[in-house]
Amino acid sequence: MESVLSGFMAPSDSESLLERAYFDAVEQVGDPDELRTRILDAAYEQFCRIGIRRSTMEDVARLAKVSRITVYRRFDTKDTLVEHVVRREFRRYFDRFLIDIEQADTAADRVVLGFVSSLRAIRDNPLIGGLIVTEPDLLVPSMMADGGQTLATVRQFVAGQLRREQRAGHVSDDLDVDLVAEMMVRISTSFLAIPSAIIDLDDDTQLAAVARRFLVPMLEPPA
């Protein structure tokens, strides 16, 4: 199982799992296969119950009320099943992010909402957040040791949002959106990977204050 977790974000056929989730969110890609969705739902529930390591394909088949052969016809290995379950959860994260920032009136407010929403969505996710807490030796190193692929994909997503702000005239054309996105993502990732003794990550008001004080000023280009 370490192999698939270390490969969550790593390139596979030149495209990472996180990149595929990002593409699915932006393009609003759906899955018309109801049986496949049923198996993914069962796998998600099973992984949340006892973790990925201890779960088997037989467990998933039993929960989905299908035969083990049916599961293997849709997902040829456990690693493949895990990849698709995690990909779907990251897709939900991107979807939630896009919905949350629509509530804001200004670019600054969208940065604040995006920061708070991102931390809450990942930490509150029973699978991804649970892995960070219960199996950090699997998930966290995979996010750090993938040659920067994870950060690059999320940075691309954030930079895309900042470019939309530029096109709308909400931030300066002189803003280096890739650099700003890089810094914002690295700050967010550090909070997920390393617990804070100063900032309560469950306090949205405190997180919003941090974002407004340290992230929003990044929207101003250097003088």
UniProtKB/TrEMBL annotation:
<dbReference type="GO" id="GO:0000976">
    <property type="term" value="F:transcription cis-regulatory region binding"/>
</dbReference>
<dbReference type="Pfam" id="PF00440">
    <property type="entry name" value="TetR_N"/>
</dbReference>
<protein>
    <submittedName>
        <fullName>AcrR family transcriptional regulator</fullName>
    </submittedName>
</protein>
<dbReference type="InterPro" id="IPR036271">
    <property type="entry name" value="Tet_transcr_reg_TetR-rel_C_sf"/>
</dbReference>
<dbReference type="InterPro" id="IPR009057">
    <property type="entry name" value="Homeodomain-like_sf"/>
</dbReference>
<dbReference type="InterPro" id="IPR050109">
    <property type="entry name" value="HTH-type_TetR-like_transc_reg"/>
</dbReference>
<dbReference type="InterPro" id="IPR001647">
    <property type="entry name" value="HTH_TetR"/>
</dbReference>
<feature type="DNA-binding region" description="H-T-H motif">
    <location>
        <begin position="56"/>
        <end position="75"/>
    </location>
</feature>
<dbReference type="GO" id="GO:0003700">
    <property type="term" value="F:DNA-binding transcription factor activity"/>
</dbReference>
<keyword id="KW-0238">DNA-binding</keyword>
<feature type="domain" description="HTH tetR-type">
    <location>
        <begin position="33"/>
        <end position="93"/>
    </location>
</feature>
